UniProtKB/TrEMBL annotation, chain A:
This protein's name: ABC transporter ATP-binding protein
Pfam families listed in its UniProt record: ABC_tran, oligo_HPY
Membrane topology: Peripheral membrane protein
Similarity comment text for this entry: Belongs to the ABC transporter superfamily.
Keywords per UniProt: ATP-binding, Cell membrane, Membrane, Nucleotide-binding, Transport
Origin species: Halobacillus campisalis
UniProtKB/TrEMBL annotation, chain B:
Record-annotated ABC transporter domain positions: 7-253
SUPFAM superfamilies listed in its UniProt record: P-loop containing nucleoside triphosphate hydrolases
Entry-linked PANTHER family: D,D-DIPEPTIDE TRANSPORT ATP-BINDING PROTEIN DDPF-RELATED, TRANSPORT ATP-BINDING PROTEIN
Pfam families: ABC_tran (PF00005), oligo_HPY (PF08352)
Family per similarity comment: Belongs to the ABC transporter superfamily.
PROSITE patterns in the record: ABC_TRANSPORTER_1, ABC_TRANSPORTER_2
Protein name: ABC transporter ATP-binding protein
Keywords linked to the UniProt accession: ATP-binding, Nucleotide-binding, Transport
Organism listed in the record: Halobacillus campisalis
InterPro entries listed in its UniProt record: AAA+_ATPase, ABC_transp_ATP-bind, ABC_transporter-like_ATP-bd, ABC_transporter-like_CS, Oligopep_ABC_C, P-loop_NTPase
Molecular function terms, GO-annotated: ATP binding
Amino acid sequence: MDNLLEVKNMHVSFDTYGGEVQAVRGVNFSVKKGETLAIVGESGSGKSVTTKALMKLIPMPPGRIKEGEILFEGRDLAKLSEKEMQKIRGKDISMIFQDPMTSLNPTMKVGNQIMEGLIKHQKMNKAQAKKRVMELLELVGIPDAESRIKQYPHQFSGGMRQRVVVAIALACNPKLLIADEPTTALDVTIQAQIIELMKDIQKKTDSATIFITHDLGVVANVADRVAVMYAGKIVEIGTVDDIFYNPKHPYTWGLLGSMPSLDSEDAELYAIPGSPPDLLNPPKGDAFAPRNEFAMQIDKEQDPPLFKVSDTHYAATWLLHEHAPDIDPPEAIKKRVAGMATSSNSEKGDRL
Amino acid sequence: MSQEKLVEIKNLKQHFKTGRNSVVKAVDGLNFSIYKGETFGLVGESGCGKSTTGRSIIRLYNATDGEVLFNGENVHGKKNREQLKKFNREMQMIFQDPYASLNPRMKVVDIIAEGMDIHGLEGDVKARKAKVEELLETVGLNKEHANRYPHEFSGGQRQRIGIARALAVDPSFIIADEPISALDVSIQAQVVNLLKQLQEEKGLTYLFIAHDLSMVKYISDRIGVMYFGKMVELADADELYKNPMHPYTQSLLSAIPLPDPIYERSRERFTYDPNDHDTSEEPEFREVRPDHWVLCTTKEFENYQREYSTVTE
């Protein structure tokens, strides 16, 4: 399979009064056709900036793509002008935003908002566009489309609004869909519906998805591959099984450990101490070192490269260096991974 | 854990008028008790009335009907200033959004000490400062932080300030309304660990309101599930997860994604249809197994009993 999108050594910075904030510091990844890549990380880790940069939606200035290439079907998006980008946005690449309350225009009827892209990109006339809108609303599961398209966003519930946002994103059959925390603002049951919807549509249209979230449960559900970001860098990337069953980076351990599992009776959650670094002055060496109980001297001096674990799995930690001491993940994490394996093998009815 | 009731909620109703003829019944006849020293988790979807319940208990809203007994005394009803003060000291709240719940124009020291000032707990300036510094250290901040303003802190740190403020007047009961929803995963674990540790040290009782079911399961001793202003199921945390009976609880549990890809591939979600119930009979809250209560009709009650009589602990 060919790569639909390839990001090479992308750096994104924001110039502020306080200095240059290096939000993304050299990110490499690729997305294949029909695949879902999940990007996880804390707020401020650069996951949203990364995807916004792909669509060139970051305000420039103060933001700028300092270096790197964004190859979409072989074309470098980083070099395109705003005019050319407008032809791609919403047509080849489209985006679902986190908050359906703010990403829809409150003064515009829902039908017109979905139609906008169709008329602009597909050169449809109004009647054709309307027909397509009805199809889309049916696809995303909004009943009674005929009367719904004449309503305004405030007449929709949160879940229904997010369906409208999904419909807008899908209107022109994009090749790549970027979903930036699409379910974070929603209830679990609604979240489950939206995720099922997105997976279903992806199967039908064979589009690729980049899914940003900090909920590891959602990641386990949707992703084929996972990239873990920390302080503007990808610290671990691999298939979903690599990341969940064989995590190598201490930060990934921390993320997995800080979520309670439903059958864990542990006295204390494995919390990552401290808070993420300030990217105005990124620390020397490994940015995670101050929060890492396994940090070695070299972590404070040099940033680790991505070490290869397997053909699909890479992690940026000096612990994988051949001279590094053999360190086992903390007990809590080992237990978690073991617990996962057993809970999956046990009967489904067990938890229900 | 003792079986002594600290808070008893009896037929609590909170209705809001939204127009001349329309009333929103946010909370509609709630009955439950919170024992001393336990953590009671309240879960449900947004709009089910769980936050309203918390706010009514602490008298941020005046209840439409019903009673909230705290140590045997009714919280609602007519009270003079002295009596109210007494309650406010015993009961404190931690709010969801640490960005909105701290006054941006006040220094941290004044935010934390405000309650102490009102209750006249620390007379002289020195003692007040010392107490604030001690509280800051309890919640894992530095005493140098006292003279800063809220905007200088991250979300997790702000939530710690909110916790310190709640602890300042030595309450026995804390209502935590989605205290971790606005925080990052790694920070969530820190705050939850802190809450647990404080509970052990100070013997606090918590009402923990949240929609993140895995976190609620982790922190709570007992859990109540709310749906449209009513409690539909109440049981020990483990029991609720092992043997959920009400179809709404089952659907809620089946919707949680777990960080486990193999499990996720086989997870089947189950939808709840409120029309499945027999509407000819008004459902009642019944005890199906010891300490496991479900809102059900007589027929459903019999079915549940039959179904779960064979299940052992």
